[in-house]
Here is the input.
Amino acid sequence: MSRPTRRTVLGLAAAAVAGAAGLRPELAAASNPGRAHGWATATMARMTLEEKVGQLFVTYAYGATATTADPRNVTAYGVATPAEVVAKYKLGGVIYFAWTGSVANPPQIAALSNGLQQTSLGVGQKVSVPLLISTDQEHGVVFRVGPPATQFAGAMALGAGRSTADAREAAAIAGAELRAVGVNQDYAPVADVNVNALNPVIGVRSFSSDPELVARLTAAQVDGYQRDGGIAATAKHFPGHGDTATDSHTGLPTIDHTREEWERIDAPPFRAAIAAGIDSIMTAHIVVPSLDPSGDPATLSKPIMTGILREELGYDGVVVTDSLGMAGVRQKYGDAEVPVLALEAGVDQLLMPPRMDIAYNAVLDAVRSGRISEKRLDQSVYRVLRRKHLNGLVDQPMVDVAAVPSVVGTPKHYAAAQRISDRSTTVVKNALLPLSNAARTILVTGYGVATTQTLANRLAARGATTTVRQTGATPTDAAITGAVAAAQTHDLTIVLTMKAWDTLVTDKQAKQQKLVKQLLATGKPVIVVAVRDPYDIAYFPAAPTYLATYSYADVSMESLAKVLYGEIAPAGKLPVDIPVAGDPSVTLYPFGHGLTW
Here is the structure.
């Protein structure tokens, strides 16, 4: 046997340390804080001002490859390809979306990531710095990388299942699959506590309305993403977006919690994330007068970002803004002022400014003029560089495109997603279940072209004769009439609702509520299933059988079919209170409610 080399010995030692700590062995060397500090400090010392400022920006670029020319890039940035966008601004990070053409399929994503990393490594005059490549892969209703990547039911389904082990396993699988395609920072988990049933933007993206449950599941997912999956997790949206009836994409919400209420409701999940070693935290474009009476959104608030997050909570990791193109952060200040104020507040990464040239030059000018000191700039650049090294990107910026199919969407991962989903389906009311295996005709109607068909396919596989009449989130009167007529000729109707409660945005004329009520009025057997927010039953409380899946993912529809036919006993418990419609002070179904057999 040949004598082991020093590199081999060090590698084995690193693997042993990693195993003891719960880390993936290949991340052990990169996870050395001393090495990360040394590299970040030395790299920063050789960077130009323009390179430093570029490290603070994260934005998107259009195109399936690094060299794809797209006229939308020319409009937004004055250059044609994603590689040229990275090079022009010396970007610290890139974010992927479906609408940018970035996430068509796993091998394409991996090749794009490699192309952008290659560009980034060649940008610096004296340094080579890899990119943080991010996306919003929360699962459930918010995901960017679709099938064949493994799809989970999402946060509130995990809340219904109550299992920290399931939460960690879901994040571990999600993290490993993202890492395989070159995405090294996920903007998840959502640490908001959804205490407002009328919240239009969080809802099932939150684990629960219970702060302690959200805290436990958030910490579990931090471990899953980071320690098991090997990517940076991002707890969002600090200081807590769970109690608002305004969407910060379109307005500026105000959270009227007292300081005591904030400590009791909103803070615990972020404290838990920090205790678990969260790599990054995303800000919220919300006003919280008890934390900062100035009226500034939290993203731009030094009392919140520095005073509370940095100093009181002791967080010294990367802080990233939510998108700077959202209305919530643009109402009070102009596009040139917002990024400067965010840095002054204490954030590190500036995400998706609406006008990149203006934002980039505004930060350059602020540093050159002395408004932002080089010391303050260096604090954020250092955090970003340190995070890149700790994530292993300096040692291994590229991914193996050929290996992607062996990691992404494997049968083992699919089976885990299904097993986790099976523990989440919640039976809120029951007069019909479980169904027998007798032959029957079933009408599947309500929300979702894919969702209604997927469920119908699952029911047909169990011997039912199914008809699908998809009516959408805003059914027309003609569609309602057609569905009601069809219900009369079927043995059973299953109607799927999706935010039927939301008559301000989703369904302004309450047509989903009308559909359900008219189906119930037929006198025929009807099962109502909320495939997103569980609150819908408050708007048709006479429904005798009502279930919540918290998700319209394929795994959720399979779990639903299993419960309907009694193949598994329903195990999900409501992770939120369902209040009476129009009176949030009165609880219709409490946290923890859930029937079984």
Remarks:
- Residues 211-228 form the longest helix (18 residues).
- The CA atoms of residues 320 and 349 lie 4 Å apart.
- Residues 1-23 have pLDDT under 50 and may be disordered.
- The two ends are 62 Å apart (CA to CA).
